[in-house]
Amino acid sequence: MATTNSLPSTLMNFEPQEFSPIRWNNGALELLDQRLLPHQIHWISYQDAPSVAHAITDMVVRGAPAIGITAAYGVALSAMAHRGTLSSEDLTPIMADITLLSNSRPTAINLMWALDRMKLCLLKAVAKHTAIDAIVTALIEEAISIHQQDIHFCHSIGDHGADLLSPNSTVYTHCNAGALATGGHGTALGVIRSAFTQDKISQVFAGETRPWLQGARLTSWELQQAGIPVRLVTEGAAGHTLKHNSVDWLIVGADRIAADGSVANKVGTYNLAILARHHNCKVMVAAPSSTFDLTIHQGDDIPIEQRADQEVTHYQDIPIAPEGVSALNPSFDVTPADLIDAIVTERGVIERPNREKIAAHFDS
Ligand code: MRU
Asked: PANTHER family from the entry (predicted)?
C-alpha cells in the first residue's frame, strides 16, 4: 500500500467543483463504477497501477479523455507504491506500469497521450531531483493538471460547438461523450450542455449503443440530471428517427482522429454519419486536441479494439444467442472526413475537415 504521510496535504485530494467520474481522495484514485449506472452510485478506490489498468479494460471507467486521466493517476500511484524501492537510476517498475496501462485499451489515443505526458514529467523530475518524494510530487501534480485541463478544454469545446447551433435545434448523439467520459462537462454533451444554457436545444435523441448501452445507461441519465429533454432510441430506429424528426445535428465524441480528419468513435457512428448525410443532418465531432493522432496518415490505420463475443451473445450474464454462436464485436468504427461537417476542439472549429485544415489547426 502506498504511504502518503510525507506528501503535502494539497496533493492528497483533488475533486473538481463540477461532477466528475474521477477523484483523487486521500492519495488514492476513486472511480465511479460506470458498469452499475444509472441504478447504483458506487465508487471504487485504487492504490496501484495494475488494478487501474484492469479498471480501464473492464469498463469501470470509459470514454477517451476519462481513461487518459485515469491512467495518469495510475502512474502517480505507481510512483507512490514503489517509493521504497524506486531510484532515479532505476525506473523499471514505473516504466513497466506505464506499459501495462498503455495496453489497457487500444483505440483511444488520449490514453497514450496522457501516459507520454506522465513519462516526460517523470524524466524531467528525475533529471532535476534525486529525492523520490520530489518525483512523486511532480507526478501527482501532473495527473491533477491533466484532469483540470480536460475539464477546462471541455468547456471551451462546449462553447465553440454551441456557436454552430441555431435556436430550437434537435440533436442526435451516440454512446456517451459526457461528463462521465471526460474529467467533467463532456465533449459532445459539453456542446449540448452549453447550447442548452443558451436556449438552443429543443430535443436530444440518444442512441442506446449496443452492447454496453452507454447511451441508454449513461447519456440519458446525464441529460435527465441536467434537465435536458432526451428521448432514447434503439440502434435500429436511427434511420426512422432521422427521417421523421428534422434532426439538425448529429453530435458525437471521438477516440482518435487521424491526420486526414477521419474519426474513430463508438461503433455505429459511421452508420449514423451516412444516415445523417442522407437526411440533411449536419455532423459535428467534439474532441480535445489530445484525441488527434497526426502520426496516423489515414483513418483505416487506426487500431480498432475487438472485444469479447460474450458482450454480444449475452446480456450481462444471460445468454441471448444460441450456445456456440460466435460474434463480431468491434468497439469502434471509422467515419471518413467527407461525412463530417465540423470537428470542434478547445482551439476552435475545423469546418469540413481535411488534411490541410487539420495541419493548419495545429500550426496556429
Ligand atoms: O467504449 P467506450 O465507452 O470507452 O467508448 C466511448 C466513446 O466511443 C466515446 O464517444 C469517445 O470515447 C469520446 S468520449 C468524450
From this structure: METHYLTHIORIBOSE-1-PHOSPHATE ISOMERASE
